[in-house]
Amino acid sequence: MGLLDTILGRSKPVKPNLDQLFSLSGAAVTLQAATGLVPSGQAGVCAKPPTGPSFAEMQRDIDALLATASIPGGAAPVGLDVAAAPETNQPLPLDDDGSGLALGADTRLRHATDSFGYSWIVVDGGSVEDLVTRVHMVHSSLSDAGWGPQLLCSVFGFRAGPEADRDLAGRRVYLVYLAKRGSFYPFVPTGPQRRDNELELRIRSVLGSDLPFEADLSRWFPLWDLPLA
């Protein structure tokens, strides 16, 4: 921060600590013990794509990184150089039906666009540790390539496990990470344009010491058109 900023009382925004994503692994254990909710095996990264082909090229680089990276469960975050990604003109491994990229025996990568025009990179399958690591890779790659301002949020899915309360059966629950804030909030849709605020607050209470929650409730934005089950 320069002298003029100090005199005028201005401050530069603090860059969110992306490594806070890794606290989600422990939070998932706490959430399961307290409510019976377990990871659904899905996560998605949402970005607002700019015009032009460069963002699409960046997505292909990320596809190549995720498709070729070997990620053991619970791996620590590693520095990634998108420029060192495999050549994007090389064929990437498709899943069985050809609709996504195979990341492993039971894991695939796919792209989606929601009704608001936002672009999603979705990972289906894998442990919560794997999902967090892959989402961290996407965030890091986009940020390092200068696309950080386009990142909006990442979403991790949860569902009722066998030990969940009966009232949670069939419910979809999500933990949302706000990329520009470095904070989380729960989102529990119950139908078109409807959400369960009571359960969202309950989840915040359960995980309050495990995750950095967004204090401003007006920023707990609803995500009605999620490309996650």
Give the secondary structure arrangement, pairings included.
Layout: H1 3-8, H2 23-35, E1 37-47, H3 54-68, E2 101-104, E3 107-113, E4 119-124, H4 128-144, E5 151-160, E6 172-178, E7 183-187, E8 189-191, E9 194-195, H5 197-207
Q: What is the makeup of the main sheet?
A: 7 strands, antiparallel
Number of domains: 1
C-alpha geometry = globular
DSSP summary: helix tally? 5
Chain-averaged pLDDT: 79
Ends: how far apart?
44 Å
Number of strands: 9
Ranges where pLDDT stays below 50 over 5 or more residues in a row are: 1-14, 70-99
Structural class: alpha+beta
Strand content: 15-25%
**Spatial ordering of strands, largest sheet:** 2-3-4-1-5-6-7
Helix coverage percent of residues? 25-40%
List the secondary-structure elements in sequence, H or E: HHEHEEEHEEEEEH
In terms of quaternary structure, the protein is single chain
Describe this protein's structure.
The chain is α+β, with helices and mostly antiparallel strands. Helices cover 27% and strands 24% of the residues. It is built from five helices and nine strands; from the N terminus they run ααβαβββαβββββα. A hairpin with a 5-residue loop joins strand 3 and strand 4. It is globular, with a radius of gyration of 18 Å. The relative contact order is 0.20. Mean pLDDT is 79; it is low at 1-14 and 70-99. It holds the Pfam family PspAB.
